[in-house]
Design brief:
The complex is a heterodimer.
Chain A: E1 4-7, E2 10-13, E3 19-25, E4 31-37, E5 43-51, E6 54-57, E7 64-66, E8 76-78, E9 87-94, E10 110-111, E11 115-119
Chain B: E1 4-5, E2 10-14, E3 19-25, E4 32-38, E5 45-51, E6 56-59, E7 62-67, E8 72-77, E9 86-93, E10 111-116
Parallel strand pairs in B: 2-10
Antiparallel strand pairs in B: 1-3, 3-8, 4-5, 4-9, 6-7, 7-8, 9-10
Classes of the chains: A mainly beta, B mainly beta.
Chain lengths: 120, 117
Amino acid sequence: NAGVTQTPKFQVLKTGQSMTLQCAQDMNHEYMSWYRQDPGMGLRLIHYSVGAGITDQGEVPNGYNVSRSTTEDFPLRLLSAAPSQTSVYFCASSRRATGGVGSGLDDEQFFGPGTRLTVL
Amino acid sequence: DQQVKQNSPSLSVQEGRISILNCDYTNSMFDYFLWYKKYPAEGPTFLISISSIKDKNEDGRFTVFLNKSAKHLSLHIVPSQPGDSAVYFCAPIRAMYSGGGADGLTFGKGTHLIIQP
């Protein structure tokens, strides 16, 4: 199994450009999520999905869109990049949802290696 | 307002000694606590967890202690090894929360553990 893969590893954008960060997992996990990590900060949840066709907002959703057309893929779209979106982005997946009744207490969240994004 | 605080940004420990990483939280609805370890240029990986119904969980060299009344938990690593040098995140969840949604992991800012040879 490849686990959770993310592309690209690095990206530089100009303010106002749009792009899609790709995330895929081959573990047949229902729950997928996107986090961002800024210097000196913990990871913060952007968006998550509890299954194909179902997405919801996390703590910091503004400026990002997501969709989940398949179980395997969960792309994150930046509609109009801003310097404040310079960050490292991590995608994660787990068998069941994390947080909320019925959370997969024994279901580990697997993280991808991250995409380092710089917006000039 | 930070719900999860790891007040030591870095910690240096000699190889073979005990490393103690601390985490404080404010949200009393957190009922399951996870620790993640992160190496540079990699994603976080799960290390150990503890449920709020316990006060201690042990896994090899790693032990997590939970003091619910103080809203404090700590991760003990003994003996510390060079491969333990990494950033450690405390990440509680509201596992029994029924307000809707699946609000994921709430991460602290992390503690950079450096094991000195």
